[in-house]
Each structure stands twice: as C-alpha cells, then as structure tokens.
Amino acid sequence: MKKELRENYSGIYSLMLTPFAADLSVDYDTYIRYTEYQASQGVEHLFAVCGSSEMANLSLEERLKLAKLTVAHKGDTTVVATANMEHGLAKQIEEIQKMTETGVDGVVLTTRGMGDRPEELVEYVGTLCRYTDLPVFMYEFPGLRPHLIDGDTYGRLVRECGICGIKDTTSTYEGIRDKIAQKGDSCVIQANMPFLLDAFRMGARGVMATPTSCGGAFFARFYDAFCSGDSALAEKRFDEITLLDCAIDSGFNVSAKYLVQLQGISGMEPRNRGGQTLSSARMRSLRSFHHWCVENGLMS
C-alpha cells in the first residue's frame, strides 16, 4: 500500500460518478477535473468504480483506467475500488489482481447475489482475498441480488476473511444494528441517509452514499461535528444532508451529475449509459437548490 487507510477505516468515502460524452464514451478529461474536485471536499477517501460510477455498464478496461486516474489525482485522500464485476471466478481473480496493481489503497467486493447463501459467500470471499494484499471491503451492491447479508454472516467475513468494512445497504435500523453488533474491529459504512445519524450513534463510523458524489463537503462537516461531540451541530449537519439526499433522489445518478456541473465542473453532463436524462423542470429545481446552498455557504 502506498498510503495507509485511516486507522479502523472510518470516515467519508465519496462515490465517484462517470462522465460520458455525447456518444456515451467515457470523458476521461472531465473525470480528472471531477476527481480533483472530489479530493478537495475535505473527505478521507474516494470510492472509484462503484454503483454511482455505473460500474455494471463499464468494461473492465474502463474500470481499471478510472481507478488509475483516481489514484493519480486523489490528493490527500485514499482510494478504494470494486474488484469483482467480471463473470466467473477465474476472471474475477484476474480482475482483483489487476485492480490491486492500479495503486488503489483498498478493494471492494460485491456479494455477487450470494446474500442468502452465507457458506458459499464466505468461501468465495476468502478465495478472492488470497489474491490481494490490500484491505478488502464488502458492498451489498443492489445490482446483483440477493445482495443483503445478515449480521452473523458479516461477523464471519470479518473473523474468517479479514474484511475491514462493509457498505451496508439494508436501509433498515435492524440491519444496520446487527452488523454493528458483529463488526469487531471493522467499520460499518453507511449508504442509507434517513438512518445516518442513528447509525453513527450506534457505532457506524463511515459513509459511502450517493449524495457524496456531489456533496462530499456536507458529509465532512457532519463527520467533524459528530466526532467533536457537538450533538446540536451534528443534527444540523444531518438535516443538511437529508435535504441534499432529497434533492437528488429523483433522477439517480444524473441529478448528482447536474449538481456537480453547477458547482463548476464543465463536461459533467446529466446523462448516463442507461439513457436517462433530466427534464427542464427537474433541472430548474436543482438550480434552485444549488442557489440555496450557495446562499447558505454549503456549496460553491
């Protein structure tokens, strides 16, 4: 590892969007500017090659290049990236080896639809972990279902496979609580915004969530307030995150891309490979939200 992840793997992992040109090829020049913007938001980590990156619609070559560019322009952050999106174990072994070679500081494994088969999942993850010397995180990626695992299974992954953390997407109080109870020295990293503050009060100490793709500074402010012990300020920062989450909820992930564009990253067009775009009315509402954020010192 070129740079150690923060002790206990806590902090804000800002998700990375993938900009596309009009022909839906990856716009790497814009991605570089966007990476530098993300690294400037006061967060600890960048999560390249994730759901918000549209990783399921990217080739292996594109995923590896995006990871390399993120590493090259990460500033003072560390970088993690998903490393098991190929089909078949043999190709996934090759993928995790290649992703390790990009210079990322940690790799992320999806549950690959084995959420309801704990024995198979633990054996599978243990196998892949043997092919990297980097910290390994789990990701309950909704694109490969069943994707959710229970607390007992997560505990086994920590104890038997050395998993360092998990992006929890259960979106339930019980699911979050059960993983925290089994986390050992790993970090439970939140993707659900309504329960973010509650999860931190229960012991979660990380965030990997869609709004970080366009508002990392919101989460850096929340994290600092919570860790300082200022409960009132942490609740205020949580309220701001909730507003951001509501603003981009409709139109994933093109709403986030448009907010990035409004913050000065030209080339981050509101389009994705799924063909989704934004209506003029939706763009108008996002411009209004951005204006409010600027007036209140929350965005540039």
Protein described:
The chain is an alpha/beta fold and 300 residues long. It has a single domain (7-230), classed as Aldolase class I (TIM Barrel, Alpha-Beta Barrel). Helix content is 46%, strand content 11%. The chain has 11 helices and 8 strands. The chain has helices spanning 28-39, 60-72, 89-101, 118-129, 151-161, 173-181, 196-202, 212-228, 231-249, 254-262, 280-295, and strands at 11-15, 45-48, 78-82, 106-110, 136-139, 165-168, 187-190, 206-207. It has an 8-stranded parallel beta barrel, surrounded by 5 helices. Helix 5 runs parallel beside helix 6, helix 8 runs antiparallel to helix 9 and helix 10 packs across helix 11. The protein starts with 10 loop residues before the first strand and ends in a 5-residue tail after the last helix. The mean pLDDT is 96.
Order of helices and strands: EHEHEHEHEHEHEHEHHHH
The poorly predicted ranges are none
Largest sheet: 8 strands, parallel, barrel
Count of distinct structural domains: 1
Strand order within the widest beta sheet: 1-2-3-4-5-6-7-8
Individual helix count: 11
What share of the residues lie within helices? 40-55%
Annotated CATH homologous superfamily: Aldolase class I
C-alpha-based Rg, rounded: 18 Å
Beta-strand proportion: 5-15%
Count of individual beta strands: 8
Enter the CATH topology name.
Answer: TIM Barrel
CATH class: Alpha Beta
User: Which overall shape is indicated by the principal axes computed on the Cα atoms?
Assistant: globular
**Cα distance spanning the termini:** 33 Å
pLDDT averaged over residues: 96
Class of secondary structure makeup = alpha/beta
